[in-house]
Design goal:
ten-stranded antiparallel beta sheet; alpha+beta; 3 domains; 37% helix
């Protein structure tokens, strides 16, 4: 057999083995999706982040803080075929499915949240201000997208626990989020009205009218106002009046920039999201 024939045979075998490998991977991914169940009707709908819970005993600086304005007020839309939200992570998922597991509340927190390394090493539900007894059994929905690597993500996929969801009383959900954060979601009614930081009945400018025409934008506006007031209050209490002036000056400058968006919804959302990140870091005003 010629050297050329040997080479051609080797290439053919390599191609066949490679194709077989990827077909096997796809089959595994597909089987993973089939194992899950469709989303239960109880979680289908539009939800708003009502509370942001973090480990109150954490010894390190977390990505998010208690009731962080960057997350509080954000909207989650959960449909049978798609899961989208407008948090800073901007992730989405197609063909979501879940598996259900009954587990002790304490075990769930122990397995899915970071250990501290000092003091009380293992966090508990109470450390996240969850009203669950340590020995209480909870039904946990472990959410995955249809095919893991091609259908997006529902949230953190960090090799620890991934995303979990607990259905809470009072039409609420608890969702494990990024960096040891738990979001408490409340269902938004179908006829929810936009509620901005200002009186929408008196909206006069194109920007104000656009904000008052969108539930999501109105909540972003509330978050920016809350974050701004938090920054001013924090520097005032610390008697750092130079930083107070800087916050106010930069906020005025940002409002002019935001107003340049006019009626462009995407521009307004991006502008407010960026300002929330600025306001979240005190070092931006020293």
């Amino acid at each position: 057999m010629s050297k050329y024939s040997n080479t051609r045979t080797s290439i053919t075998m390599f191609f066949f083995i490679t194709c077989s490998f990827y077909m096997h991977v796809l089959a595994l991914a597909g089987s993973e999706a089939i194992k899950g169940q469709s989303l239960p009707p109880d979680i289908i709908g539009t939800w708003q982040v009502a509370k942001v819970k973090v480990d109150t005993g954490a010894s390190r600086k977390l990505l998010y803080q208690h009731d962080d304005p960057r997350l509080k007020g954000r909207i989650f839309k959960i449909a049978p075929d798609k899961f989208v939200q407008n948090t800073p992570e901007h992730i989405s998922c197609t063909n979501p499915n879940v598996t259900v597991e009954r587990i002790l509340a304490a075990t769930l927190i122990k397995n899915s949240m970071s250990w501290r390394g000092i003091g009380q090493e293992i966090p508990t539900p109470q450390d996240f201000e969850l009203q669950h007894d340590l020995n209480e059994q909870v039904d946990v929905l472990r959410a995955r997208c249809g095919i893991k690597y091609w259908a997006g993500s529902l949230g953190p996929d960090d090799g620890i626990e991934g995303v979990w969801i607990i259905i809470l009383p009072g039409d609420r959900l608890a969702i494990r989020w990024f960096d040891d954060t738990i979001l408490i979601l409340s269902r938004l009614p179908v006829d929810a009205k936009p509620k901005a930081s200002f009186n929408c009945a008196k909206a006069a400018t194109p920007v104000e009218k656009t904000i008052c025409g969108s539930v999501a934008l109105a909540f972003f506006d509330q978050s920016v106002a809350e974050s701004y007031l938090n920054a001013v209050r924090g520097f005032t209490e610390a008697k750092d009046f130079d930083s107070v002036k800087n916050v106010k000056a930069k906020q005025k400058k940002w409002i002019k920039k935001r107003n340049a968006c006019g009626t462009n919804v995407a521009c307004l959302e991006k502008s407010m999201e960026e300002q929330l990140e600025v306001l979240a870091e005190p070092g931006n005003f020293y």
